[in-house]
Amino acid sequence: MKRNILLYMVLLAMVFSACQKLDLQPKGILLPEELFGNESGVKKYFTGLYNYLPIEDFNYYGNNNPSGGDAFRPTNYWEAGKNSQGNCSGEFFNTWQGVNNSGFGYWPYNRIRDVNIFIRDFPGYKANFKPDPYNALLGEASFLRAFFYFGLAKRYGGVPIITTVQNPLAPRDSLLVARNTEYDTWKFIYTDLQFAIANLPATSEFGRANKYVAAALLSRAMLYAGSVARYTTYMNYGAEKAYTAGLAGIDPSKANEFFQYAVDAGKLVETGPYQLYTKNYPDKALNFANIFLDASSTENIFVKDFDQTVPNDTRLRHNYDALMCPQPDMASDVGAESYPPFDFMELYDMTAYINPDGTPVRFTNRSDIKNDMEPRMKGTMYFDGDPLRGKTFSIQKGIYLTYTGTAAAAQGGSNAAPINSSGNRVLGSRGQTTKINGVDMLIAGAHGHFTFNADGENNAWGAAFVRKYINPQMATPDVRLYNSGTPWIVFRLGEVYLNIAEALYELGKRSEAFDYIEKLRVRAGCKVARPAIDMGTTNIGSINKANYPYQIENSLQFIRDERVRELYGENHWWWDIRRWRTADQILNQFRPRMLSAYYVANEGKYIYIDEINRNNRSWTASKSCFYEPIPGGEIGKNSKLLPNNPLY
Amino acid sequence: MKKITYIILGMGLLAFSSCFKKDNYAAPDAQIHGNIIDFYTKQPLLTSQADWSIRTWEKSWKESVAQPRDLPVKQNGTYNNSKQFAGSYDMLPYGGPFWPIADTAKGVAFNGSAQQDFTVTPYLQVVELTTSVSGTNLTLTCRLKAPKRVGLPNIVEVKPYLSLTEFVGESNYINIAEYNNTRKQINQSWLTYFGDVETSPVITIGPLPVKSGYTYNVRIGANVNDAFRKYNYSEIKEVKVP
Q1: Which numeric CATH code is attached to B125-240?
Q2: Considering only CB atoms, which chain A residues are within 8 Å of B65?
Q3: Which of these CATH numbers, 3.40.50.300, 2.60.40.1120, 3.30.470.20, 3.20.20.70, describes B30-120?
Q4: pLDDT digits (tens, 9 = 90+) for A325-362
Q5: Does the beta-carbon distance from A236 to B185 stay under 8 Å?
Q6: B178 and chain A: CB distance < 8 Å anywhere?
Q7: pTM of the entire predicted model
Q8: Which of A59, A403, B53, B163 could form an SS bridge with A77, CB 3.0 to 4.6 Å?
Q9: CA of A515: how far to CAs of A181, A184, A522, A530, B155, in Å?
Q10: Do the domains at B30-120 and B125-240 have one common CATH topology?
Q11: With the C-alpha atoms ordered A272, A57, A494, A534, is the resulting torsion angle positive or negative?
């Protein structure tokens, strides 16, 4: 018994001794002192936020159903190429994707809260910093918050503006915040970015914001806001509650205010150390392609770095080369998924492929189609005869035994056209040949367009592959999934020029607007660098002969087209046709056309025919695409987010 | 040992009792049906399958703000749904090719089988559809009628629809460029394009290539640039190609 008591006492002594000082600071967790009290800590804190910025880059999953993560950081991000925004919006022809009106429920208030925590707590550590870096870091926080709100505003219009750190234990009613108007939301972005511009330094380390980065974002955001204000009124949203309450749409009288902000911000960027990239002159085509490959480009304002040497799954790698180049010659995994439609190619200076009498031009070589082409177009797309990774593109659809008459006789490639009867037009599989008068003739090129696997990958549907952002330095065996490291250019001077030009034109400063267009067109190598200003009006757009619900001046349409030409494949197109409020008309059964090369056997020459895409695929957007619906789960938590956006 | 056996038996009883299948909420069994009447013809509105819908909000559930649920409208201008939870609902024809309806039907009781009809005023009427086949080319004509022209949004287009089944309209048609490219894209106001008349001149669409020996169901649709851009249709005509 005594022994037991002793035993218990010893045990008790051990138990209670263990209760001492359990309240230790865990050594693996960084607390506010470490994170906010010195510059490296803040940098670490911001790194996470930069990683979450809503940048539609190579890995952006434009469809609303990524198999993991969210659209900016999908787990299976090799699929992001198939589900790219360009594929969804018809900017790239592909056989998989259609328009996604309703988005994926982007709702980054957790990240906004992270910024708000910093803005609330950082002043407590002011004594640790000199004034300059202190203000710069606060400015950087404002930049980050504005970027998140920009991602929200361009999707939803007006959203709740949260600038404080909400306490989860506060009365429930105070946590349910209603939406601000769309005008207020864009103004809030303006205010945050003005603060960032005032406080950020003129230079920053690679991948971080400086005052010009903030100004570049401001020029884009204010251009969006101005267009929303000017053109939403033509949507006839009528009695839709979100529209009447100003949650979706802005009074047209505010348009000029925003356009002026866009001009001012753009002109601030101009005062920075940036210049249009011209290093590879006089080869303007190569020069244009290298804008996107040369890390030292003077045109880059803000770059999201991808680096395939970083270990583990840190998502700083992408698959663009493997998803845009044809396998097996130029890629060794997956292969090409997306192709430029002829509708976009037509916007550039193009070699004549139809004679004035309507007959197809006879070319000696297929690659002669490039003879008279705008250099920028050749820098944006690969055509037959272009070398890549030791191989040469070979793109041909078939053979006409004879071709008499006009190009229109081909009826857009329809099988019903008499000239396309199987006795006269020969189609075949990859690299297939046929004997004509005893000579083996190639029917279909090695890279398209062939009948076998006609629905699948690695088959040029028209005359071109995407060249922008393709890195020719990679050897074909290296072109695999997760193996590309080309950085994504978030803002470049070329875009800022376009922002200024469009905003200036919208403000009626036509000639000044074309000063900027001219700079870009000189660099692009266009035949006419500065077209005369044409104030005649039209409501017919360039692509798909869209019927806009409003009239615009021909020169403004030219500026819009210039934007498409310059920024093709950079994930601008969808946002642009949304803010112009023309997406539902441009993507009104938009049936991409394809330029197809044929050999005319009896003449020994090549012709190019403007055809309707072989799958007869079409893209259609409805008027609900101009705003995404507020995510249903959020409405379930907070009914003050209602009314939902128009047409939902 | 016996104790352990009882414990195991008891645990088994507990474990299996949790599998008892009893849902404490009855399956929805209320039916709601009705017609969408065209104000001009007094007949069910000519429409296409699931082009648009009747929007409903359940009001008897007070715990959260009612979210809209849509009941699709059938091609014959009727709707019918027999798997609704009984309760009190607000209903509104929404998103269709007619002038917006100001009055939501409030407090419609879903219980047993209820009928709720709506009358709508279509933007346009597509009338006098004719079809003519010459060889393997089909030509269509029609006229548009706009009884109410004040405040009418711009006319967007007049479009032919061909189908090999009885279902024909925007949700089901032969979607090929040869047909779609023959649509008349107008995008102007009625007044600018047709003048101040109630009935338009004859609009001809075609020729449309058709295949010998097939029977097509054909109609024409026209839409205006309201928020939804849905189509008002003609009636359907059957065309046998010899």
Answers
A1: 2.60.40.2060
A2: 635, 639, 642
A3: 2.60.40.1120
A4: 998 899 998 888 899 999 999 999 999 999 999 999 99
A5: no
A6: yes
A7: 0.89
A8: A59
A9: 35, 32, 11, 8, 38
A10: yes
A11: negative
